[in-house]
Amino acid sequence: MSFVRSKIKNEVVGVGVTDTPEGLAQIEMPQCAATIWRRQLGLEFRAWIDALAPSKLPKGRLVLRPDAVADAVRHLCDIAGMEETAERNWLENDIADLAERFSGIMRSPYLRLRLDPISTNACRKFHIDAIHARLICTYRGTGTQYGISRGDQDPQRVFTLATGAPMIMRGTLWPQNSPSGLLHRSPPIAGSGETRLVLVLDPIFDLDEAN
């Protein structure tokens, strides 16, 4: 596990980078604003998902238990008319695995799952989410962008997550004293013809929070 650190407002904002999925748990370390699992998607998977028509990409927003994610994603892929392939099977299993890992790290009994095909400038402004924490992984297209903010300004240096690299970020509701200088946004892609496929997972500790 390595850290990229930036000092801001007398605090050190840390972004942890790991080569193993287990390293994502380092989000709980003091002064760690985010953790990134540095991985690359297989060439066959990239070629397969990039070739799909946008209408064939799964889409949905659900609140469910982690052990129900696999069946839910399979159902979303069926609704989209996605053909049964080894690549589709990998996608379903990977989302289910990330859900199990994330809920374990967060110790949350439920998750809010969002699968979004995006072709617009959604969430194009740099921001921090008003949540406990969030996992984001882009399976197709340009990854989420992030950077360290100084004051109310946008980051001077902007980094782009690799496609397929999961990132866990703290939100403003993180219960411990937390660095607040790490901002993120969706990459501006309107008019480019690009369609991204983005997975977002939020921990839900009480079903009343899901409304």
Summarize the entry for a quick read:
This protein is of the alpha+beta class and 211 residues long.
SSE inventory with pairings:
Layout: E1 2-8, E2 11-18, E3 32-37, H1 43-51, E4 60-64, H2 69-79, H3 86-106, E5 110-118, E6 133-140, E7 145-148, E8 159-160, E9 167-170, E10 182-185, E11 196-204
Parallel strand pairs: 2-3
Antiparallel strand pairs: 1-2, 3-9, 4-5, 5-11, 6-9, 6-11, 7-8, 7-10
Helix pairs in contact: 2-3
Mean pLDDT across the residues is 88
Strand content: 25-35%
The portion of residues assigned to helices is: 10-25%
Order of helices and strands: EEEHEHHEEEEEEE
| Strand arrangement, major sheet | 1-2-3-9-6-11-5-4
> How can the largest sheet be summarized?
8 strands, mixed
